[in-house]
């Protein structure tokens, strides 16, 4: 029996079939001095206490950039597959309505959706501060006319939507989508840690439909000029359902979306036997990410 072995690398889109997993005393030389010291100490304590309280209050009110990224990210499904999407807002949307936003995802997901609608798994905040999932249909076609735009060079889709009134959504501002200059300003380079809110292998973080947060590192060099590096690699595993996820760099108080996850690299080995052909796929743990400049360009192509 003869056996022939072959090995090659391939790109696999991270799409997935629908579903979900579910004090003491102090002595002093004189009373006046002692009283003065005590007053100063009390005053100092009051000042320090006020500063501490202000810091705590500020911290409580401050927005966490990673939690904000989660609040912008949702699962999108159809009868055949599932993916990740996120929302972006700009001055154009805000001028129309505070519920107007732009849905961004991987174009191949929408292209593979045969129906005129898909479903977004929104989250609704309840009176007790818990969250509940709420699936809402979103139209992606009007007859043969597409209601979304695809970037001419990359696998990115964007469309304007009206968010449900009770949906808890915190879109990224368009200024948070990285440009070549902001990559330099943030000093984004190979080895940079990134966060990816996503829905791998049908999984949601909980019954409310929150995304799962994964971490990785930029594995490509250089990142600029972006025209020569449309897609980059992230040292992170991605799975079915992750397509369309935002790739985020976060500081203490702000975040930057540097790209959108499209798929993964894998090694494909095949073995030819006398009567059969065997194929083996081995994930390389490298996510394919398109740079955020092209997300901006896709949004800018939408009709005003």
Question: How big is the Rg?
Answer: 25 Å
> Structural class, judged by helices and strands?
alpha+beta
| Overall domain count | 1
Which bin fits the share of residues in helices? 10-25%
Proportion of residues in extended strands: 35-45%
Write down how many β-strands occur, each being a DSSP E stretch of 2 or more residues.
Answer: 17
> What global shape is seen?
globular
Total DSSP helices: 6
Largest sheet, in brief, is: 8 strands, mixed
Query: CATH top level?
Result: Mainly Beta
- Stretches where pLDDT falls below 50 for ≥5 residues? 23-47, 49-61
Q: Terminal Cα separation, in Å?
A: 65 Å
Could you report the average pLDDT, rounded to the nearest whole number? 84
- The helix/strand series, from N terminus to C terminus, equals EHHEEHEHEEEEEEEHEEEEEEH
The CATH topology assignment is: Thrombin, subunit H
The CATH architecture comes to Beta Barrel
Oligomer: single chain
Folded structure, characterized:
The chain has 304 residues and is of the alpha+beta class. The protein has one domain: Thrombin, subunit H (Beta Barrel). Helix content is 21%, strand content 39%. The protein contains six helices and 17 strands. It has helices spanning 31-61, 65-71, 91-96, 107-111, 180-185, 293-300; strands at residues 4-13, 73-77, 82-89, 100-106, 117-125, 131-139, 141-142, 145-146, 149-150, 156-162, 172-173, 193-198, 212-218, 231-235, 246-250, 255-272, 277-291. The strands form three sheets. Strands 2, 3, 4, 5, 6, 9, 10 and 11 form an eight-stranded mixed β-sheet that branches. Strands 1, 12, 13, 14, 15, 16 and 17 form a seven-stranded antiparallel β-sheet that branches. The longest helix has 31 residues, at 31-61. The protein is globular, with a radius of gyration of 25 Å. It starts with a strand and ends with a helix.
